[in-house]
Amino acid sequence: MTRQFPSRCSSCGEQKVNPTILDTYSCNIKHYGHIYSVVVKDLPVLSCGSCGELYFLASSDEKISDALRNKLGFLSPAEVTNLRKSLKLSRYAFANKVGMRSNNVKRLEEGIIVQSRRTDKKIRELLQKE
Ligand SMILES: [Zn+2]
Known about the structure:
The chain has about 130 residues and is an alpha+beta fold. About 40% of the residues lie in helices and about 25% in strands. Strand 2 (about 35-50) and strand 3 form a beta hairpin.
């Protein structure tokens, strides 16, 4: 997706939205029924120079997910992928072993979703069993 900047702000209507990096960004994230406050450093976003409205990018969401994963001490997407490959499991077989849907394994490995505590534990147990 290519975008021309500055682009129009859907909040105030001014054409003053530009990409920027926030030094620190704090937010509350709901994850499996719990709310966690996380602080993200160097967060890429789009922001409106007129009203200050923030627009999140796929890369913003990825960084926020990373921050949550770190806070919870969960395995990273790369660690999950490496673990699955070291056990020579397809995503489908891996999904069955840890009780996930295989398309969620894909989304987990791509950093789109953050695993539940139960799933994180199951993945670690898999490592100990083999
Ligand atoms: Zn605006």
